Amino acid sequence: MAVKIRLQRHGKKNFAFFHIVVADSRSPRDGRYIEEIGTYNPNTNPATIVLKADRALAWLNVGAQPTLVVRRILSYEGVLLRKHLQGGVAKGALTQEQADQKFDAWKAQRDAKINAKIEGISKANAEAAKAAEAAEAKVNQERAEALAKKKAEAEEAARAAAEAAAAEKAAQEAAAAAEAEGTEAPAEA
């Protein structure tokens, strides 16, 4: 029986979530499996991987073949490095303590890279939020200036209309006064 370590798709359309399973190569992708050894969620940044590393290593040691994507996941989690180091211990090339030290050093380096990426993403998000806030403030200021300009123009037009109405009223009153004087003057003469 050919045993594969592969992904089993779950989730919904355009939002896949995978289980990492050990299954017979002849069984369907989402069908029967022998053992579930982890999960993989590519929707987060960085991707979330939960893996039973000891079980994955045990299955690799008995001959299970990982698919390409699962091979990358196992490499990312250090399972393949652990298998390589265990092979060196079995051949006598290094001791178990040396293998553990090498693995711990690699794991510390990997964790530092992951933390740096997470910090970089959070800084980029914060900068994007500040830039969006500044752009929004600029747009709001331009709108306020345009509204103030429009209001000033309306007030100026109202003032000019009031002055024109006052001037017209004064002209009408002067004309009425002149007419009244003109009609009164002949009446007195």
Number of strands: 5
- Fraction of residues in helix: 55-70%
* Structural class by helix and strand composition: alpha+beta
Strand content: 15-25%
Report strand order across the widest sheet: 4-3-2-1-5
CATH domain fold name of the largest domain: S16 Ribosomal Protein, Chain: A
| Radius of gyration, CA atoms, in whole angstroms | 41 Å
**CATH A-level architecture of the largest domain:** 2-Layer Sandwich
Distance between the termini: 136 Å
How is the topology of this model organized?
Layout: E1 3-12, E2 15-24, E3 35-41, E4 48-51, H1 53-61, E5 65-66, H2 68-77, H3 79-91, H4 96-188
Parallel strand pairs: 1-5
Antiparallel strand pairs: 1-2, 2-3, 3-4
Report on this structure.
The protein folds into 2 domains: 3-94, 2-Layer Sandwich (S16 Ribosomal Protein, Chain: A), CATH 3.30.1320; 104-171. Helix content is 66%, strand content 17%. The protein has helices at residues 53-61, 68-77, 79-91, 96-188, and strands spanning 3-12, 15-24, 35-41, 48-51, 65-66. It has a 5-stranded mixed β-sheet with strand order 4-3-2-1-5. The N and C termini lie far apart (136 Å). The mean pLDDT is 89.
